[in-house]
Task: structure prediction
Amino acid sequence: MDLNINGRSAIVCASSKGLGKACALALAKEGVNVWINGRHADALEQAKAEIARAADVQVRSLVADVTTEDGRQALFDACPRPDIVVNNAGGPPPGDFRDWSQQDWFEALNANMYSAIDMIRRSLDGMVERKFGRIVNITSVAVKMPVTTLGLSNGARSGLTGFVSGIAREPARHNVTINNLLPGYIATDRLQSLLGSGAAAAGQNPESYSEKFFSQVGAKRPGDPDEFAAACAFLCSQQAAYITAQNILVDGGLYPGTL
Result:
């Protein structure tokens, strides 16, 4: 399927690896010029080279932290008129809520709520004026199925979800959509870290722990980042113009609810 976004421009946040990189790659393969960013130059340049090998598009990279004002400003200085914005940032660490300080909460809310809101603020009016825009926020299945040890993420991402629900409908008449894409257990470095800490806490070997862990998923396996990225690319397509203000799960059947 031709997604009809060839020649468009996209900012994909936190895209030197993991889900961000996969989404940037999927968009590039559809002919989208991509601006990627990350905090570490080596990983960022590797991602840039990988995307450039896979697609004949412009791939620009910036060493920038999207959770900072300076980082977001740098992205919009480099790409002031994005047609597509994919919001993404690393999740906060797991733990017990009794141990989290006010600063821990502020950092989680900044990274996983406010940063995306500010990216939307910076891009939305221009998209409306140009009559095309796609904003996809990478959040988490925890929005629908909170994980006890991921309370910082549960809170921050749920806050973003509520905010998006309040603003996403009006721009749709201008062919501008805002959606949230909720990954379940996707094979990324973060998932490996969570599996490792979980196995250690349970006193189990990693293989046995992982097998039991994925037994709760309908697909009985972790998702591939490319599978997640394909859903992101579709939400950015012209064909997805009638999808907005939605929370779309990519979780292999993990979430057991009907709504």
